[in-house]
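Practice problem 4.
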């Protein structure tokens, strides 16, 4: 296939992909409409602003705890590596 044939083939594939993307968008929209029955997503009426603030605070606290745990684990791993390095050095010196 010559250069012109390759170019025509690429143009044809691009046109096909464009049509497939349009079909995919339509399918996604239909699927979302069926999932939510055409309704917009809203917070439930039982949720207040105070509940949302409390949830955000709990999430922030959990993230802080996770970060502290990760830092502690990193220090533990570095300490073990340091001890192993010292043991190897002492073994090699004897």
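Answer key:
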């Amino acid at each position: 296939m010559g250069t012109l044939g390759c170019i025509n083939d690429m143009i044809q594939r691009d046109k096909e992909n464009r049509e497939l993307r349009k079909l995919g968008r339509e399918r996604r929209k239909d699927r979302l409409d069926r999932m939510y029955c055409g309704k917009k997503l809203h917070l439930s009426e039982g949720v207040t602003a105070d509940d949302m603030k409390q949830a955000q605070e709990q999430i922030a606290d959990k993230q802080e705890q996770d970060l502290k745990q990760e830092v502690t684990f990193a220090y533990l791993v570095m300490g073990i590596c340091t001890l192993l390095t010292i043991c190897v050095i002492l073994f090699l010196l004897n």
